[in-house]
């Protein structure tokens, strides 16, 4: 028996149930791990509420964690008991132990802690692909990053700045503004109080942005389109405030021949080669000091409901972990 947080019916944070579950031995190509830290993500909220459909009920929430290998199944040669590992994978993360395909694991370098590993595999890899693959951020680009003080936000602002971009962030409070400024933002906009489109126009002296990274969704749309220069890229990668409503394709024309994409991590780390490329680049950025990993909250796994309340009520900054 191991402990896990399961969802038996979708709903509010109260549906997160801490209980005993059975974890079997690893099968062919699988590894059983003991998890030392689990990453908290907004996607966990989407699955819990039913905005994103889980394959079935009940399900164990969570998609990223780090821990140590306890046992390997037949055919696994590249991992051994005691190895320190981390992953981004299907639901099943909110647990003390789990069985997972070996090809979804990466080894943690000595200098990366379990806590860091647990928040880098979903959030960090997402920032990696957004800034290097979806749009290649380079010296002199002007980028707008919404929810700049969030888990994705603080990593994205730091890394975009390190790549030479001019970074504009939006945040929900003054305290978050200070944090975003200390983590790579050149300018911060309080988007609940200020008109962020007008502020972006002022800050950029009318030149607008090369790319907008929007994980907020409903409330920042269509303003995000108005922050882009002609032929700029709208990257809609999340729905913290609700999904972007359907809109006529002609809007992209009206706003200056824009490009738009709705990417997801799976499609950027679908192969082993892509996963290792992303993880190697990410870990190197942390080890070289280019990227500081702000883990600002820790909860016991059994308190996952409290963690969800805080995340949804915008009370968290940076990354948060659950401790099994
Ligand atoms: N597509 C992908 O591959 C991918 C992968 C990972 C994450 N994501 C997305 O990235 C986004 C950020 O994820 P995260 O886990 O790092 O979360 P987070 O940014 O730490 O938390 C969400 C933040 O969104 C802002 N927000 C704006 N309106 C909100 C509302 N109505 N309710 C709640 N929050 C609101 C809040 O910041 P302020 O108070 O500053 O407004 C809040 O702190 C999410 O949309 C997530 O789904 C996408």
What would you say about this model in short?
This protein has 324 residues and is an alpha/beta fold. It has two domains: 2-122 and 272-323, Alpha-Beta Complex (Quinone Oxidoreductase, Chain A, domain 1), CATH 3.90.180.10; 139-262, 3-Layer(aba) Sandwich (Rossmann fold), CATH 3.40.50. The chain contains nine helices and 16 strands.
Structure report:
By secondary structure, this protein is of the alpha/beta class. It folds into two domains: 2-122 and 272-323, Medium-chain alcohol dehydrogenases, catalytic domain (Quinone Oxidoreductase, Chain A, domain 1, Alpha-Beta Complex); 139-262, NAD(P)-binding Rossmann-like Domain (Rossmann fold, 3-Layer(aba) Sandwich), CATH 3.40.50.720. The chain has helices spanning 42-49, 114-134, 151-162, 174-182, 196-203, 223-226, 250-254, 272-287, 304-312; strands at 2-7, 16-21, 30-39, 59-60, 64-72, 84-88, 97-101, 105-107, 142-145, 166-171, 187-190, 209-214, 228-236, 259-261, 295-300, 319-323. The strands form three sheets. Strands 3, 5, 6, 7, 8, 15 and 16 form a seven-stranded mixed beta sheet that branches. β15 (295-300), α9 (304-312) and β16 (319-323) form a beta-alpha-beta unit. α2 crosses α3 (151-162) and α2 packs across α8 (272-287). It is globular and about 60 Å long. The chain starts with a strand and ends with a strand. The mean pLDDT is 98.
**Shape from CA axes?**
globular
- Number of E strands: 16
CATH fold field value of the largest domain: Quinone Oxidoreductase, Chain A, domain 1
What ligands can be seen in this structure?
NADP nicotinamide-adenine-dinucleotide phosphate
User: Over all CA atoms, what is the radius of gyration?
Assistant: 20 Å
- Name the CATH architecture of the largest domain: Alpha-Beta Complex
Category from helices, strands and their pairing: alpha/beta
Low-confidence stretches: none
What is the tally of helical segments?
A: 9
Average pLDDT metric: 98
